[in-house]
C-alpha cells in the first residue's frame, strides 16, 4: 500500500536541525536524503506555509497571503487574522471561495483520503483542507469531510505535552489503524517555545529535543509498517526558522506620523504585519503614496528588502489581490547571548508595549528564518544522500503525489524523486 506521511517540526531552522545532536533527525538522514538548500516562502509564516505545503503552489496561486491578510472592503481593505478558526468562513463569504487551487486533501479524496493532525493555530490547520475533503484535527476545531464537526475531536494543549499527546494518537490511530493515503502531523514546537524564549536557551533546546523525540516515534512506526508490506514515503521538515528579536517597530503608527496615511481608520492603504515582514495593500498601483512610502521606507534603519508590486512574482505574490508592497524587516547575522546568529526587527501596526525582546520570531526574509529543513525517506530517495539544488515548501505536495502515482501537473513545485536536469 502506497502512503505518504509528513511530519513538520514548526519553526526548526536548518542549522539547528542538521547541526544539533538530534538523534532522530540523524536517523532519518541516514535512511533518506537531506535537502540542504531548502527554503521557505514569503512570508516565512505558518499559515501561508501550510497552504503552500498543501497545494504545491506559491501564494500567487493559492491566494492565502500570510498569517494575516487583507480582503477588499467598500472603503478599501480590512485586515483579518488567518489564524482564527472563523477566517475561512469569512473568506468564503466575502469572495465565494477559499484557496484557488486544489489541496492534497482534495487530490487524495478518492484513493484513501487525507488526515491532518496540527497543533499550530486553527487557521493553519484548516489551511490544509478548508473545504472539507478529508479530516483535520486541531485542539480548537476538528473537521470531518463536508466541513462537518468531527465526532472524535482532538483534545490537547498548545505545549510540548500537547504535541506528545497528539503524536501518540496520530501514531496509534492514523498510521496503524486508519491508514490514509496522506497523513500530516504538524507539531507546534519548537516554534511556540521559541516565541517565548531565546534561541539556544535551555527551554528552546529542550523543545527542539522533544520535537525530535516525537519524530522518532513516527519513524519507529513507519519502519514497522514498511516491514509488513506498506510502501510509505516519510517526509520530515519545517516551515520556517526563527531569528532573535532586536526591536519591535509600530510601522503603521510611524507611517501615519510621517503623513503617508491619514489615520488608523483610513482603509485605502493598509499595513498587514507578518512578524519580521509586512505587506502593504492599496486599491491602485498608481496611488502616489506608494512611491513616497517606498522612498520613506528605504531610509528606515529597521527596513530591509522592499519588493514592489511589479516584482511580486519573484517572491510568489501578485498585485491583483491588492498587495502593492512586500517588506522584509532588516536582519543581520549578529548572534544572541546563546551564540545563535540572526537578529531582526519585528513589525507591528501600533502597539509595542508588553512585548519581549531577544526571543524568536519570523515572517520576513532573513537568512536563518527562511532556511527550514527537509529530509525525505522512501522509494526514490537515496539512503544517506544529500542534495544541494534549490527546493522549497511547494515541492512537498508534488513529491507526495508522485509517490502516490497521481498527476503532478499544474503545480508550482516539482517531485523531488528526480533531480533537475542541469541543462534546462
Question: Care to give the gist of this entry?
Answer:
With 424 residues, the chain is of the alpha/beta class.
What would your notes on this structure say?
The protein is an alpha/beta fold. The protein folds into 2 domains: 2-64 and 99-241 and 370-403, Alkaline Phosphatase, subunit A (3-Layer(aba) Sandwich); 244-360, Gyrase A, domain 2 (2-Layer Sandwich). Helices cover 29% and strands 25% of the residues. It has helices spanning 14-19, 23-31, 46-55, 59-62, 87-95, 104-107, 122-126, 160-178, 191-196, 202-227, 251-257, 288-297, 396-403; strands at 2-9, 33-35, 38-39, 68-73, 76-81, 114-118, 135-137, 143-144, 148-149, 182-187, 231-237, 243-250, 269-273, 277-282, 303-308, 323-329, 331-335, 341-348, 360-361, 374-377, 385-387, 391-392. Helix 2 (23-31) runs parallel beside helix 10 and helix 8 (160-178) runs parallel beside helix 10. The two termini are 34 Å apart. The model has no long low-confidence stretch (mean pLDDT 95).
User: For this structure, what is the CATH homologous superfamily of the largest domain?
Assistant: Alkaline Phosphatase, subunit A
What is the tally of helical segments? Answer: 13
Question: Spans with pLDDT under 50 lasting ≥5 residues?
Answer: none
Q: Beta-strand percentage?
A: 25-35%
Largest sheet: 8 strands, mixed
The percent of residues in helical segments reads: 25-40%
Q: Strand order of the main beta sheet, please?
A: 7-6-10-1-11-20-2-21
Distance between the termini: 34 Å
User: In terms of structural class, how would the helical and strand content be classed?
Assistant: alpha/beta
Mean pLDDT over the residues: 95
- The CATH class of the largest domain, by name, is Alpha Beta
